[in-house]
Amino acid sequence: MKRRSKPGLRSAAGAVLRRLLPALLRDTRGATAMMFALALLPMFGAIGLAVDSSLGYILRSRLSKSLDVAALAAGRVALSDDAEAVARKFFDANFAASGGSDIAVGGFTYDLDDNRQFVTLTASATAPTYFMRIFGKDSIVVTARTVIERQTSGLELALVMDITGSMNSDGKFNAMQTAAFDLIDIIYGDETEVDNLYISLVPYTSTVNIGNARTDWLAAGDRVLSSPGDFSTAGWKGCVEARANPMDADDTPPGSGLFTSFYYAPTVSTNDNNWPALRTAQWEGNNGRGPNLGCGPAITPLTKYRSTIDTAIGNMAPWSRGGTTGNLGLSWGWRTISPRWRGLWQGETPPDLPLDYDEEFMEKVVVILTDGENQFYDNDNGDAFRSDYTAYGRLESLGVLTLSQGRAILDSRMAQTCASMKAEGIRIYTITFGSGAQASAKALYETCATLKSMYYHAPTNTDLAKVFRAIGGELANLRIVE
Hints:
Blueprint: H1 7-26, H2 31-76, H3 83-97, E1 104-112, E2 118-128, E3 139-151, E4 155-162, H4 172-188, E5 197-204, E6 208-209, H5 223-226, E7 239-240, E8 300-303, H6 306-315, E9 323-324, H7 326-337, E10 363-370, E11 375-376, H8 403-423, E12 427-433, H9 439-448, E13 455-458, H10 461-475, E14 477-480
Parallel strand pairs: 4-5, 4-10, 10-12, 12-13
Antiparallel strand pairs: 1-2, 2-3, 3-14, 5-8, 6-7, 9-11
């Protein structure tokens, strides 16, 4: 038979334990305190690890966000020589702004892949720990990596290029041609065509060539239609005169305002246009003669094919005589991307282009370049006429007597076109090129640009190459992929 403990004895034992426990807990000399301390160590370590890990997570987040900003900035100028410096500048500015003077940054790298499609940035940061140093770990190191994919899509782009005779000096024309090729290379990358990317090319002199097949855009009774022999054996090359203001400065389609063919009539002045005989080669320069004097190559309307644009750029050449009408170049650039001209250009331009201004995920952009100022030019030095013949006729046709008065009219028309295009949401990049660009031209082109940062002055051929690369980078769509 089992013996049961007496109730009084169990109660007495409990009372003794209650009296001794506080003393045991206070006793730091014995094994009890050691066991209690050992029990606290893993608990304290777990808390410290959690706190320092949270700080590391916050640090990594700061690092990643700063790299994202830097990569997006670098992606815009990825093909320029200072792309890495731009990336580091943006990274440093954003990382410093997020606080933490006791944090050291290292391992910053910039990489652009061989296809110039992906920009990769990496960086590491070292910060002191707060709790884990008790266990011998004084710092924590985190790393981050960002990859930006450079894409070009959703764009109607018009390149409006000055090909007047002055571009034939100091290697400027070759520099412009090379820079334009670079721009196309940046936008297309290794592709021959890109979805929703269309480009037009508009060379301009003192007139613009719409192409000699577009006779349906000419007014009834135009000499091309009624008396084509007036052009002698050369035939009509395709240049047209400016319509009366305001249609010379807007995007009115030919159905609401037909054109007149450009015809430089023969004169008795050898220094003006004494023909026949005809001298129609580009290399004749100011010695050229004929009905198409000063008329350059035709517009290339919107096309998705890189080969077409490359060929058009390669076929450009500087053409002398007449002067410079950048205002007409700009208005024709607008017409190549204006929805009011949808279905009119034909050829490689799809019938549903240009798209509406508010088309989702699409942009309309114009890049215009000049090496001087809008002007009338007088090759015969006033012996017979106040200027050469232009898309506006001669200077006196505008009711003015001096070249400066004529320039003021052209500048005013260009400002009118710039304002109208920007009101439609078209992004305009403007470039003045060469050391001879006048202050008035710089001011006009700066005002014409959508933003001041979208106006560039390139004093040298090397500067022009950098400008086109910068614009190409800005036209690329950037997407964070990692």
